[in-house]
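Action item from last meeting closed. Structure (720 res):
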């Protein structure tokens, strides 16, 4: 709870009571309660999404994945700017609590100067490493919480009920408007989701920590505001830059003021530290997804931190702190703009939850789900409540907030659209709900072969699609890195190559009139990553490129292919692509277990050119005069066609009688555009005979060679 609760306690307890009291009087306690309720709704939706996708990025990642890169850009920019506005808000509060209580120190220049010094310290700590900043965080939060509990515990005995008589001087409108101002203090639970990729046991800890943080801090805020406005009149509290010190001096004396100042200083540092940490992770993730410059998507060689993202975040936050020299109401403005940005983000998070539930993609399997009786009430009420709070905000704040949203849209259209990698699940949620479309996964890595792979995959998908379902291809590119992929340097040239591949794939799929989803993956093992993509997509078929030759050592088809061939829960086709001359399609069919799959693939692939394949069976000359090898061959072809679910008019049958079966089979491949054959035994992918035949077929023909294998529903699951 340190990142979550610490940020919320630090923001509200020491800086916001004065602003809140000025806006709503003692009823500001209700403003905090409403803000806490809105935050709790968002926390429930975020908890489900975070346990389904525990990866760094928080709301940005979930919206980007669920609604697509346009909305991801809006939320990414909103979160980054919102966290920077919040961090600047904390740092100005830091300066206020140092300057105001000390005689002889005054002036906005000193406040801003101390704020900038504190920001430099925090940026340096985050640059050096998350573990160091997290350890300091624990100590700071424990100290400030102890002081706050003493403040509230003693203050309850000094409340003057007369100060609470005019409970809501600004009415319901003032209470709601103040809710928008104080919502900034509830950003802590979002920070938990933002660093979800670094949380151990996310399925248990994320929802528990989020909900406990929001509920406990909401109760604490309500008590603090009742104490603060009960001990001194709200008019006096509203005019103070250090409101908690003004209250503490009444019943804790000068020693209490010193303790409050100390707690306020470490609370502001703690809150700003959490915000800088989370903001840098957001733009780091945006850089990885093509929505921000690749320059930011780099980790430090020594400290293993996203140092460029941290420096960029610290630099912009410093400019916002410096605005305090010119803008008199900077504290309230920073708080409200941060609130606006996150309220918009949370509204889209609620929508994303509904989209994931309706589209039900296979990779979405959260450990925590919003309980049945509360769904869809939680996301619907969450959207309504965020809209109500935003509507009551000051017009200046609304204009600045809308400007941030517009920035995200313009940035996407002008810069990121061509590099964006996520199409989202909005279409499935709106049009079909859970999809029953025939799905083919196509790993792509080579620009020279991706068109051929997409062509074969599209043909398979179209031939197998139901009348009411759209055939779907999932193009996947895997960048191999060593170690944890979320914390690795990935060269900009490699990311550019990945995006260019996937963008070209989209163009090819458009030409072929199939629906395409793209997946950009960074992983330490390519084969395992492809296998995960097949399982995540709940694929019916996977089409993988193959060089047409076999590797030495323990692998038969190669380290990237063998794991998929051995364990994928769907049909797999290995395609060795050649010059593809016109010559039709032939399937070499015999008694092997995968002959029907090869026959089926031949029919599907031949359909790409509107042709009909030949199913070829080679028989040795009969020793028994009564046994006609041609009739036996035709019977074998018919049996294979029947097992493949083919009608006889979907293929041509050809029987060759020859004493040298293998030579006859290879001779039949010459001049063919595509040769299909079945893998002899999927449990022995490195066994010799069929591999050798496939390799020799690839050598003999200038066309394509496809090795087909039936699915293995019982394939082993990965440990992840």
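Sequence:
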């Amino acid at each position: 709870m340190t990142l979550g609760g610490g940020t919320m306690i630090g923001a509200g307890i020491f800086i916001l009571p004065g602003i809140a009291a000025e806006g709503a009087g003692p009823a500001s306690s209700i403003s905090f309660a409403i803000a806490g309720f809105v935050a709790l709704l968002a926390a429930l939706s975020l908890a489900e999404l975070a346990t389904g996708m525990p990866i760094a990025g928080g709301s940005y990642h979930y919206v980007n994945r669920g609604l697509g890169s346009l909305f991801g850009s809006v939320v990414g920019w909103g979160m980054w700017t919102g966290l920077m506005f919040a961090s600047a808000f904390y740092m100005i509060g830091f300066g206020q609590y140092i300057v105001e209580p000390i005689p002889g120190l005054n002036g906005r220049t000193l406040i801003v100067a101390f704020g900038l010094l504190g920001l430099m310290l925090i940026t340096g700590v985050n640059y050096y490493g998350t573990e160091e900043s997290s350890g300091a965080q624990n100590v700071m939060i424990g100290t400030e919480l102890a002081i706050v509990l003493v403040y509230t515990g003693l203050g309850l005995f000094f409340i003057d009920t007369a100060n609470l008589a005019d409970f809501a001087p600004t009415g319901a409108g003032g209470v709601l408007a103040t809710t928008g101002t104080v919502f900034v203090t509830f950003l802590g639970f979002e920070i938990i989701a933002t660093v979800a990729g670094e949380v151990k046991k996310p399925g248990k800890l994320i929802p528990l920590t989020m909900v406990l943080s929001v509920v406990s801090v909401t109760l604490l805020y309500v008590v603090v505001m009742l104490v603060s406005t009960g001990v001194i009149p709200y008019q006096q509290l509203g005019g103070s830059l250090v409101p908690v010190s003004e209250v503490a001096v009444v019943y804790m004396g000068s020693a209490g003021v010193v303790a409050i100042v100390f707690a306020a200083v470490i609370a502001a540092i703690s809150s700003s530290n959490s915000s800088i940490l989370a903001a840098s992770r957001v733009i780091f993730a945006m850089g990885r997804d093509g929505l921000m410059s690749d320059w930011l998507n780099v980790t430090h060689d020594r400290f293993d931190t996203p140092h460029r993202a941290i420096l960029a975040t610290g630099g912009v936050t410093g400019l916002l702190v410096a605005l305090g020299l010119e803008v008199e109401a900077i504290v309230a403005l920073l708080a409200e703009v941060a609130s606006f940005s996150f309220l918009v983000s949370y509204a889209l998070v609620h929508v994303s939850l509904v989209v994931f539930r309706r589209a039900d993609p296979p990779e979405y399997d959260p450990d925590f789900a919003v309980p049945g009786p509360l769904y869809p009430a939680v996301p619907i009420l969450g959207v309504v409540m965020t809209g109500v709070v935003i509507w009551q905000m000051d017009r200046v704040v609304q204009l600045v907030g809308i400007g941030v949203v517009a920035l995200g849209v313009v940035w996407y259209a002008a810069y990121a659209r061509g590099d964006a990698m996520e199409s989202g699940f909005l279409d499935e949620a709106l049009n079909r709900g859970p999809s029953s479309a025939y799905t083919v996964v196509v790993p792509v890595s080579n620009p020279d072969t991706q068109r051929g792979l997409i062509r074969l995959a599209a043909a398979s998908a179209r031939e197998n699609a139901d009348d009411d379902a759209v055939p779907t291809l999932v193009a996947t590119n895997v960048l191999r890195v060593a170690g944890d992929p979320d914390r690795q340097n990935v060269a900009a040239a490699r990311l550019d190559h990945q995006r260019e591949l996937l963008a070209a794939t989209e163009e090819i799929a458009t030409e072929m009139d199939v629906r395409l989803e793209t997946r950009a993956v960074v992983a330490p093992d390519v084969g395992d990553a492809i296998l995960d993509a097949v399982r995540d997509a709940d694929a019916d078929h996977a089409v993988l490129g193959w060089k047409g030759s076999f590797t030495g050592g323990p692998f038969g088809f190669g380290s990237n292919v063998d794991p998929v061939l051995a364990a994928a829960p769907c049909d797999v086709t290995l395609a060795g692509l050649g010059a593809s001359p016109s010559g039709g399609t032939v399937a070499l069919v015999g008694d092997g277990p995968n002959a029907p799959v090869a026959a089926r693939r031949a029919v599907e692939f031949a359909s790409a050119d509107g042709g009909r394949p030949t199913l070829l069976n080679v028989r040795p000359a009969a020793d028994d005069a009564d046994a006609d090898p041609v009739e036996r061959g035709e019977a074998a072809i018919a049996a294979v066609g029947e097992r493949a679910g083919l009608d006889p008019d979907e293929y041509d049958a050809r029987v060759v009688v020859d004493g040298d079966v293998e030579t006859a089979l290879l001779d039949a491949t010459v001049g063919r555009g595509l040769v299909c054959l079945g893998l002899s035994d999927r449990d022995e992918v490195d066994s010799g005979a069929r591999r050798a035949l496939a390799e020799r077929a690839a050598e003999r023909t200038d066309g394509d060679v496809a090795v087909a294998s039936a699915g293995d529903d019982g394939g082993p699951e990965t440990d992840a």
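Note appended to the action item: Strands lie at 439-443, 472-480, 515-523, 541-545, 571-576, 585-588, 614-619, 652-657, 674-678, 704-709.
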